[in-house]
Amino acid sequence: MSNSNGDMFDLTGRVALVTGGNGGLGLGMALGLANAGADIAIAARNADKNAAAVSAIEATGRRAFAIPTDVTSDSDIDDMASRAIAHFGHVDILINNAGATVRKAPEDTTAAEWDNVLDVNLRAAFLSCRAIHPHFKAQGGGKIISIGSMFSIFGGGGSGVPYSSSKGGIVQLAKSFAVAWAGDNIQSNAILPGWFMTELTQAIPESQPERYDLINKRIPMGRWGTPTSFRARRYSWPVARRTT
């Protein structure tokens, strides 16, 4: 997204709405967008983390606004979109980042656990896109970025069958919205991150050292990414490391 000066990474005057944007990759992306000039609406549940995220974003010189949001609630998602628009006057970018997982063998995974992961990872992304669409259409366009995973492509038994299934769905969701809303000048894409050290994964080095070592051997650079890989200069994430 470029502005009149032709800078492809200049987001001055733009507003991004990031679900799950108060920690991990979500906050890393929010800070990256803020460093590029965008104002940020954070949609997440935890009030303390929301406040900390707002402070970190404001430290970049950009405006930030936190919206308490449970992405499994239809009404919260509708409220999230309307409050972000009311606060900033417009929204230009939606990032579907909120995520959940359950690490169990498929035969031990309950229907309720399956439903929760699919609701958070896939259903919420659909509802968020649907909620923002009228605004994007009315203003002449918008950008949707949905966060998948490497398990969107590969089987993810170790990370849970619901998780990998939901992330596979994210790819098709992004493609389907791209086709459905191209005529409204709305672009929809998916990003498929590999292994990053976040709240969802930071216990693995100590709790599953063999798996951690195996993962590292399959990564060409031999290390995991961190949220600061999204270039958030004023924020650092405590990276868990094995000492033996």
Automatic annotation (TrEMBL):
Pathway assignment: Lipid metabolism; fatty acid biosynthesis
Stored SUPFAM superfamilies: NAD(P)-binding Rossmann-fold domains
Keyword Oxidoreductase on entry: yes
UniProt entry keywords in alphabetical sequence: Oxidoreductase
InterPro entries: NAD(P)-bd_dom_sf, SDR_fam
Pfam families, per the entry: adh_short (PF00106)
GO molecular function: oxidoreductase activity, acting on the CH-OH group of donors, NAD or NADP as acceptor
Family: Belongs to the short-chain dehydrogenases/reductases (SDR) family.
The protein's name in its UniProt record: 2-dehydro-3-deoxy-D-gluconate 5-dehydrogenase
Biological source species: Geodia barretti
